[in-house]
Amino acid sequence: MLQTPPAPSELLAQLVAYDTTSAKSNLPLIGFVREYLEAHGVRSHLIPSEDGHKASLFATIGPEGVGGIGLSAHSDCVPVEGQTWTSDPFTLTLRDGKLYGRGACDMKGFLACVLASVPSFQSADLKEPIHILLSYDEEVGCVGVRPMIAKLGDTLPKPRAVIVGEPTSMQVIEAQKRIDLYRTVVTGLEGHSSAPDKGVNAIAYAAELVLELQRIAAEEAKVTHDDRFEPPYSTVGIGVIEGGTASNIIAKTCAVDWEVRSLPTADPNAIPSKLMAYAEERLLPRMRAVSEQCSIATEHDHAVIGFLAAADSDAVSLGLKLTGHNKPGTVAYATEAGLFEAAGCPTVVCGPGDIAQAHAADEFIAVSQLEGCMALLDRLKTTLSA
């Protein structure tokens, strides 16, 4: 006979102990989850990455052949390098009702609650199944969930609704912004800094591009507006600038990494198109007057598509029913929700923890948030057993 299942905090301690920074393998954590599920009579399927160093996991509890509800989490977390922690980030530490550890909030707390609920799910007379979907590499562009989503409705059951348990303080979220990452590389003409007129300083022109991006962003804020979001418009962020070799050398190259977080209804190509038009009309003619070899090129690194639930979304209705809230909200950060929605799985985002704690030093999740999530999962069990 199985022992009393561990509390969410006990499971969270074990999950946090696995360093699943996106640059590392998640297989040890996946192995732990799989063994835990098997101990409770739940079989799971693995969807390995192409190189075999990582895997997603899909498991079903309850009857087969009907849609059911998917509970989605990602296994990876962001690095701790360069951060100052007051305790070991991979040892869960309780202080003043808060559980500290990397990934405790984003989003192993939700996974711990799901695992802690497995025995209760198993003992219930579910009329619809509960699916557990655990992915990898969400933090680097929602990479790992895509092969799993591609199998839904084919070799894996397709949930009729999905709850993505990202930290929302247990609020129901029906929409998120789209994120596009870009790298713009300016190539100038190097030379001695004593003769700046003989060269083309890539850093100087990159600075003009950055200023133009800020101007475009301010312009977009006036024409793209949705009060459901905070801030209520599409935004531009400058992340990294790299260029030059020495102070007495005219910089030949400069690269700028930047992002656009656009409203889900906005044209994602609007801002990069305006930037390149500015580069071609205002900057390149001046640069090529000195050297025809000069260039400005922008590459689209990757995108996380926006999420906008349908007005009559079953997932949003379910989320409101389970939480008791009256209306859903929105977020500006990225989740896997848009990918599920695009694949025909109505989706809602709702999970324990405050996004303000995610990715930060001394990341934590309040014990009360875990309790709230456990209550929601218990109500889900009751709903699917009726």
Summarize the structure.
The chain has 386 residues and is α/β, with parallel strands linked by helices. The chain has helices spanning 8-16, 27-39, 104-123, 145-151, 202-223, 270-288, 314-323, 337-342, 367-385; strands at 44-48, 55-61, 69-74, 93-95, 98-100, 130-135, 161-164, 173-176, 178-187, 235-243, 253-262, 295-304, 307-308, 329-331, 347-349, 364-366.
Describe the structure.
The chain has helices at residues 8-16, 27-39, 104-123, 145-151, 202-223, 270-288, 314-323, 337-342, 367-385, and strands at residues 44-48, 55-61, 69-74, 93-95, 98-100, 130-135, 161-164, 173-176, 178-187, 235-243, 253-262, 295-304, 307-308, 329-331, 347-349, 364-366. A hairpin with a 2-residue loop joins strand 4 and strand 5 (98-100). It folds into two domains: 8-175 and 306-385, Zn peptidases (Aminopeptidase); 178-304, 2-Layer Sandwich (Alpha-Beta Plaits), CATH 3.30.70.360. With 386 residues, it is α/β, with parallel strands linked by helices. The strands form four sheets. Strands 1-2-6-3-7-15 form a six-stranded mixed β-sheet, sandwiched between helices. It has nine helices and 16 strands.
Find the CATH topology of the largest domain: Aminopeptidase
- Order of strands across the main sheet: 1-2-6-3-7-15
| Backbone structural class | alpha/beta
Q: Report the strand count.
A: 16
List low-pLDDT spans: none
- Main sheet makeup: 6 strands, mixed
The CATH homologous superfamily of the largest domain? Zn peptidases
CATH architecture of the largest domain: 3-Layer(aba) Sandwich
Number of helices: 9
